[in-house]
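hey
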């Protein structure tokens, strides 16, 4: 019997990010020559959440791989809001530091919005400060939020046509869904899409996702998008990442996205794997923002 050949192609974030990192490493060396020091990123981690620690460690490791300096600021879960703001004030003023991120989520007693507002927008390499969000909306220079910027970069890398397409985004969070809907509708390439933003109050989601030429899923619900919810030829960007217990695996878990991969991939023209899709692109965008901050 003929072996079935997969019709879809992978939007391989690992491969794409590796090639972008080669370029970043060259530019980091140039910055070091010009300024006498390498680009420097700090990450603030409050508390001991396992997933947050993994994300932060991956970011620090990525810095090392491109010749950046990195600093991990670890604070106990009991840190008061005032103490965290005082630490951020130091980072804002540190002339040896180009940019920093405060890993979310923060402990419940800390107001994350207040913390974000306190970060100097010139060092806000996560692109969460209202000044950077405003610049993104207006198409002005600034730092783009890492995950949405990484998604756009991935589509660019693989030459996925976006102009005039119907892009459906599922999820309206401030860090993924809402900003990516703005980037995809901008008069830019990739961009120029007609965008529908679906969320938890959307009625008959499947009838909307079935209209998508490009479907970006950031709902945080494992395998919620099934094969019957997409049309043939759709381009799928799955942002979701979920650790599911699996006793058959050596690690004890497997990673799932927001799409049921086998069913959705069978109809897709392009699809991101989970893991190895959006995750590595998020990290590379953070590196790009840090490089930009170091050049300013
Ligand atoms: P969030 O929980 O802040 O937002 C989820 C959004 O999905 C909400 O706006 C909600 O309205 C919408 N939603 C929930 N259920 C829905 C439903 N049944 N139908 C339609 N919309 C629904 O999540 P987030 O921070 O945007 O993250 C989303 C997912 O992406 C999570 O799994 C997260 O772990 C992952 N994530 C991955 C990366 C990465 O780099 N790979 C980065 C950020 C987030």
């Amino acid at each position: 019997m003929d072996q079935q050949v997969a019709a879809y192609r992978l939007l391989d974030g690992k491969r794409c990010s590796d090639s972008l990192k080669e370029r970043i490493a060259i530019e980091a060396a140039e910055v070091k020559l010009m300024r006498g020091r390498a680009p420097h990123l700090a990450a603030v981690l409050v508390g001991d959440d396992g997933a947050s620690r993994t994300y932060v460690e991956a970011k620090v490791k990525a810095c090392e791989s491109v010749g950046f300096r990195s600093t991990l600021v670890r604070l106990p879960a009991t840190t008061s809001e005032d103490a965290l703001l005082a630490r951020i004030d130091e980072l804002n003023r540190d002339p040896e530091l180009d940019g920093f991120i405060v890993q979310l989520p923060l402990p419940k007693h800390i107001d994350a919005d207040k913390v974000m507002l306190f970060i100097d927008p010139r060092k806000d390499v996560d692109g969460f400060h209202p000044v950077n969000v405003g610049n993104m909306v207006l198409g002005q220079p600034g730092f783009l939020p890492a995950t949405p910027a990484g998604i756009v970069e991935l589509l660019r890398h693989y030459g996925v046509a976006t102009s005039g397409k119907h892009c459906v985004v599922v999820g309206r969070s401030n860090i993924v869904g809402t900003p990516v809907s703005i980037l995809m509708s901008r008069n830019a390439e990739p961009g120029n899409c007609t965008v529908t933003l679906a969320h938890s109050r959307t009625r008959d989601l499947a009838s909307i996702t079935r209209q998508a030429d490009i479907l970006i899923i950031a709902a945080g619900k494992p395998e919620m998008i099934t094969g019957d919810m997409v049309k043939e030829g759709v381009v799928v960007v799955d942002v979701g990442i979920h650790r599911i217990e699996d006793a058959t695996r050596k690690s004890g878990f497997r990673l799932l996205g927001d799409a049921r991969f086998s069913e959705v991939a069978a109809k897709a023209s392009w699809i991101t794997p989970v893991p190895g899709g959006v995750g590595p692109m998020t990290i590379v965008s953070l590196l790009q923002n840090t490089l930009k901050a170091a050049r300013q």
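The pocket of nicotinamide-adenine-dinucleotide is lined by residues 147, 170-173, 175-177, 198-200, 202, 205, 218-221, 224, 239-241, 278-279, 282 (CB under 6 Å). The longest strand covers residues 40-46.
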